[in-house]
Amino acid sequence: MREFMRLALRLGLLVCIAALTGCASTRLIDSDVRSFRTGSLDLAAASYQFERLPSQQADAAAQTEREHWATPVLQRVGLTLASQSPRYTLQLGVATEQVPRNDQFFPRRWNGFPLGPVFAAPPMLWPLEPSLYRFQVQVLLRDAQNREVVYEASAQHTGPWSDQAHILPAVLLAAMRDFPNQASGPSNVKVEIGPLGMELRP
Questions:
Q1: Which helix (H) or strand (E) holds 57?
Q2: Residue 66 has what DSSP assignment?
Q3: Given 81, 99, 150, 183, which is the most exposed site by the fewest CB atoms within 10 A?
Q4: Ramachandran angles phi, psi of 52, nearest 5°
Q5: How many domains in the chain?
Q6: Within 10 A of 172 (CB to CB), how many other CB atoms are there?
Q7: 14 falls within a domain
Q8: Is residue 15 part of a domain?
Q9: Tell me: the pLDDT tens digits for 127-176?
Q10: Residue ranges making up the domain that contains 94
């Protein structure tokens, strides 16, 4: 029993160290992406202003922060924030939630169950497993004149990191990878976060 407690403490320490050093290391963020082009896009005048839903207006401080980190990512794909007379309006939706740990990430084989051996984490070690977090980003680009949606993109990532300031921009970059074209279908896009910033990976 004493050896088991030592092992549990060591595992807990390793998890804490990984959580504390995760932001400083290079990370590969993989996102499930879908994008659609539903109209013509004038990239020569691809200026935009953010458009907010009533719920986003009610939490203006949080939405302003999201738009702040989203602006350089959108600039990177060719969209320029305009102070007035934009060609397009852009609606940015963001959701973050902690999700139940999925044992497929940490499978183990355990014997002694009535129906035979199973692959799962033992209940005694569940608190030591890292939590998982789901990040979702959606972009709707509308023609500012006729209000038609001309481009839609969304991406979702689930992983052990909770630092939104780093993960959400990477998920947005993945969502906009194919802009101004649409993806041929659902795809998995990888973005590497490192000391020098973010880079798309094959």
A1: helix 54-58
A2: H
A3: 99
A4: -115, 140
A5: 1
A6: 27
A7: no
A8: no
A9: 556 789 999 999 999 999 999 999 999 999 999 999 999 999 999 999 99
A10: 26-201
